Amino acid sequence: MVGAWRAALATGEITRDGTTERLEPKVMSLLFLLASKPGEVFTKDQIMEAVWPDVVVGDDTLAKAVSRLRKALDDDPKVPQYIETLPKRGYRLIAPVQALDRNEASAPASAVRRWPLAQVGAAAAALVLAIVMIAASQMREPAPSSAAVLAERANDFYFQYTRADNQAAIALFERILAERPDYAPALAGLANAMVQNVIRWPSDTGGREYTRLGDAIKDKRTSTPAAKTILERARVLAARAVALAPDDAASHKALGFVQSALLDFEDAIASYRRAVSLDREAWGPLINIGDVLEITGRPREALPYFEQAYAAMTAVYDQQSARIRIWYPALAVLIGDRWLKTGDASKAESWYRRVLSYAPYHVAATSHLASLLRTRGKAQAAEQLCQNLQRHAATTCTP
């Protein structure tokens, strides 16, 4: 028993008041691991070693497993009753735990006496821990055996935004599709990676790396014959993903990404909005809507979407830190820049300072704030910022 839920490792099911949820093997292993030492903190490394032995997975794989377990347990991460996140430390189970004997395990959950955590005792914890170790050895999966594992790994590569990582993502998505041609996450992921390749690294001959679609469009990078061939294939892949998984936000986001690269801007916005309607915390499509609105000359409409994206990032940062980290301060600086363009220097300053509150030596935030302070007659404060940046980060303010 974990709180009000009875968990059966053999069936992979948890039951409460007549409601039964079937968990994936790794999610169930995670539950039993946390239950082996209730109240104690398990670090990410400890969890990955126990639940994913001999498999290299990213932080997002663990975060998604925790999210799925919370959803199954009907646990609110903001007011947790079961799983508590301790930022930069790990996770712990805070619900009461009781090991059941065979007779109790076969009884309805409502008939089982629930003991407080203090009465569980070392024997129960040791029993559960033994079950976890047996389960881990029985559930061990070879690294490349699962499409879901490969897709997670491919997405981890994709979100690093380097040429080599993007090529690795493409190779893994294509490997999945060779065996499962109708696997929607791989179709959507491959479409994303192909578009990214066109925008950032169109060839091996060098050239500027663009991080914004609008810059790539201005440089006609998306309109060459080679680019159009790649993008049309990506459109087919993304459309197939949407057809196979119409309720998957990631598939709609991928289709919107392809449509925007092909200059089908209104269709792209519609696809992105569909993605957001399916997942309110889908920060990527929100950024992309703002990007398309700016490309099409509607900057004032874009700003609220950037702010919504930042709020969504904040809400899921603990679960998606590996993917959000590089975008989080950059988006806040962009929002500050956009407020400055509207003439609202106070809001711009607040956004720059927000970044510096958690990234004290962020170059862009420091430089932009220093420039703003100079224009507001605060040259001494601006100089102090730049000196601190140079002292601690060995770099200087840039215009």
Could you please describe the fold and organization of this structure?
There is one protein chain. This protein is mainly alpha-helical. It is 63% helix and 5% strand. It has 3 domains: 6-139, Arc Repressor Mutant, subunit A, CATH 1.10.10.10; 149-317, Alpha Horseshoe (Serine Threonine Protein Phosphatase 5, Tetratricopeptide repeat), CATH 1.25.40; 327-399, Tetratricopeptide repeat domain (Serine Threonine Protein Phosphatase 5, Tetratricopeptide repeat, Alpha Horseshoe), CATH 1.25.40. The strands form 2 sheets. The protein has a 3-stranded antiparallel sheet with strand order 1-2-3, with no helix packed on it. Strands 4-5 form a two-stranded antiparallel ribbon. Strand 2 and strand 3 (19-22) form a beta hairpin. Helix 6 (147-158) packs antiparallel against helix 7 (163-179) and helix 7 (163-179) runs antiparallel to helix 8.
In short:
This protein is mainly α and 399 residues long. The chain has 18 helices and five strands.
Draw up the topology in text.
Layout: E1 6-8, E2 13-16, E3 19-22, H1 25-36, H2 44-51, H3 59-73, E4 83-86, E5 90-93, H4 102-105, H5 121-139, H6 147-158, H7 163-179, H8 184-200, H9 213-218, H10 225-244, H11 249-261, H12 265-278, H13 283-295, H14 299-324, H15 328-342, H16 345-358, H17 363-375, H18 379-393
Antiparallel strand pairs: 1-2, 2-3, 4-5
Helix pairs in contact: 1-3, 1-5, 3-14, 6-7, 6-8, 7-8, 8-10, 8-11, 10-11, 11-12, 11-13, 12-13, 13-14, 14-15, 15-16, 16-17, 17-18
